[in-house]
Design brief:
The complex is a heterodimer. Chain A is about 40% helix and about 15% strand. Chain A is built from 16 helices and 15 strands. In chain A, strand 8, helix 6 and strand 9 form a beta-alpha-beta unit. By secondary structure, chain B is an all-alpha fold. Chain B is elongated and about 55 Å long. The chains are: A alpha/beta, B mainly alpha.
């Protein structure tokens, strides 16, 4: 007999309506009462279409039930027990993905000595002293040429400066960006520039250059004075808050053409997401605030453990509620984590890889070696080539094979895999010693957070669909 | 769709593919729906429809009786098989193997 069974999906509600997040397609559909009743009935066990019609016929006509079954089958929310839908095949991208973003680690030196730093701290991958401390002009220009070559036909490219403390090599930023603009003009392309800084060295002259050149800025900052100075200190232990705040205020007062974002590292000791957000968005005036848990092995004192993940989730959920209220009221909200996820949900992204590292994004070390991303820049183990010699295609292909979501068997039954795809390679390398491992220590957290984002998405779809139109 | 409302872009794209109606090949597909990819038994090599080198059916790769199931489950064309949704969900229940048991398939009267 032709029995039907529920497919793979996450059911959620928003604005009193019922929705499905379908896996692996990442489609979102709103259910009517009948479709909900069909799924409820199948929750008790497999049923044939006839049994479903019989069960539901007092309320709905047989034609309607059949129509609903056909639509659920079409969207693969349900499937025939005898003929389940085929499993997606692990396929590498059919065409080579052009490089979109190149992150230049212009220096490996830093004037701060943050206790949790992944570059210098206890979990570092590269011994900084084995490489040049500053990127020179030749490597910077070769990097720009490499970016344009690898970008192929793309009309625009992103050049991002990173460190160390990026502004310690300000001279090279000027040289590299001027050269990139010159090459872009010759090639008829557009180059977008951005940088990340700890804001200690933001002076008038540097801000002049940032404003004149439309450079996007992300400031690494952990919150108010007490939160910032817990880990973000100078080598002598002095906190950096009082140094950076006047600089940030000056930057925010002068730089209006590109949004200036704050990027917060959460630790076991700094998890009060709501108060951090309040300070950075409302009091200092950042355009947006993004949060990320510290990357570390589990035994470090600043690592976030189970209770910490719960606390962080509670904070994220409270802030997501705040975000939703603002969106419904037509006010801008700067919690970028939820906004980014809403965009991915709206587009229906179903990721084969957790991020663009090694595909559309790569990182360059001070000596010109190209790695997966800026966090691996300089690591011989994660090298994909060099700006002078190009990308080693065999290495890149091997990387694509090993890191595909289909190779992560732990993720095979997780409904959140279209958005998570196993999580950050650097986090996995630090925790488990391999970039190919999924980050199993925060699965529960990711599922709970993704569900919260789905609920925000559903509520907006129901009550303020025009908000979502910005992602079209 | 009447019962499901596509909300995100991916759901809209899937819905668009589901709306392809049955069209004859010479019509060049339904207008504005992109490439039409025909499905069904007549587009795959299905030796059950043919005769073997001796003009009989015993030497075929697959038994001719398999045709019944080609029309029953996998074919999109409305073939002359019983209504398996409503009146005759069990019409092939006694037919475990089409080659051996095809005579046991129920006769269905509307």
């Amino acid at each position: 007999m032709n029995r039907l069974r529920r497919g793979e999906y996450q059911a959620f509600t928003g604005g009193d309506a019922h929705f499905l997040y379908l896996v692996p397609s990442a489609a979102v559909v709103r259910l009517d009462a009948l479709s909900q009743a069909v799924l409820d009935s199948l929750a008790e066990g497999d049923r044939s279409p006839l049994e479903l019609t019989d069960t539901l016929s007092p309320r709905w006509s047989a034609d309607d039930v059949r129509g609903s079954i056909d639509e659920l089958l079409g969207m693969r929310a349900i499937h025939s027990v005898a003929a389940p839908p085929p499993k997606p095949i692990a396929e590498k991208p059919k065409r080579r993905i052009p490089l979109q973003t190149l992150v230049l680690n212009v220096t490996s030196k830093c004037n701060l000595s943050c206790g949790y730093c992944y570059e210098y701290g206890e979990d570092k991958i590269v011994e900084a002293s084995t490489k040049p401390r500053f990127m020179n002009e030749t490597v910077a220009k070769q990097s720009v040429d490499f970016l344009f070559t690898e970008a192929g036909e793309s009309p625009s490219v992103n050049l991002t400066f990173f460190g160390g403390e990026t502004l310690l090599n300000f001279k090279m930023l000027q040289t590299a960006l001027a050269y990139a603009r010159e090459r872009a003009e010759a090639l008829g392309k557009v180059v977008n520039a951005s940088l990340t800084t700890n804001a200690t060295l933001l002076r008038e002259g540097i801000v002049d250059w940032i404003v004149e050149n439309d450079v996007g800025v992300t400031v690494s900052i952990d919150g108010a004075r007490e939160q910032q100075d817990k880990f973000r200190t100078f080598a002598n232990g002095m906190g950096s808050y009082d140094i950076i705040v006047p600089n940030i205020k000056m930057l925010l007062a002068r730089h209006h053409r590109r949004p200036v974002g704050a990027r917060v590292t959460l630790t076991g000791q700094n998890l009060d997401v709501t108060s951090i957000y309040k300070h950075l968005f409302h009091e200092l005036g950042f355009w947006e605030v993004g949060f990320a848990p510290v990357t570390t092995t589990w035994q470090r004192e600043y690592a976030i453990e189970d209770k910490g993940f719960q606390q962080m989730l509670g904070g994220f959920q409270a802030l997501a509620k705040d975000f939703l209220d603002a969106a419904l009221a037509g006010r801008r909200h700067g919690f970028s984590n939820v906004r980014d996820t809403l965009e991915e949900i709206h587009k229906g992204m179903s990721k084969a890889y957790p991020c663009g590292a090694g595909l559309g994004l790569m990182g360059v070390a001070t000596d010109g070696d190209v790695a997966l991303c800026h966090r691996f820049a300089g690591s011989d183990e994660h090298k994909l080539g060099s700006v002078s010699e190009g990308v080693d295609r065999a290495k890149q292909d091997g990387y694509l094979d090993r890191h595909h979501i289909a190779a992560k068997t732990d993720c095979a039954t997780c409904w959140a895999r279209p958005l998570c795809a196993g999580g950050c390679y650097h986090e996995a390398h630090t925790r488990y010693g391999s970039t190919a491992e999924p980050n199993l220590h925060y699965c529960e957290w990711i599922r709970a957070w993704t569900n919260t984002c789905l609920e925000v998405y559903g509520t907006l779809a129901e009550r303020k669909p025009e908000y979502l139109a910005q992602f079209d | 769709m009447k019962h499901l409302k596509p909300i995100n872009q991916k759901a809209q794209r899937i819905e668009a593919t589901l709306q392809n109606d049955v069209v004859a090949l010479q019509q060049g597909g339904a207008p504005g729906t992109g490439p039409h990819i025909p499905l069904g038994c007549s587009f795959v090599f299905s030796p059950g429809w043919e005769v073997d080198s001796n003009g009989g059916t015993s030497g075929l790769c697959q038994p001719v009786e398999r045709d019944l199931f080609d029309c029953h489950i996998t074919c999109f064309w409305p073939a002359q098989v019983p209504d398996l949704y409503n009146h005759a969900p069990d019409w092939t229940a006694k037919c475990a193997s089409a080659q051996k048991d095809w005579r046991k398939i129920d006769l269905i009267f509307p």
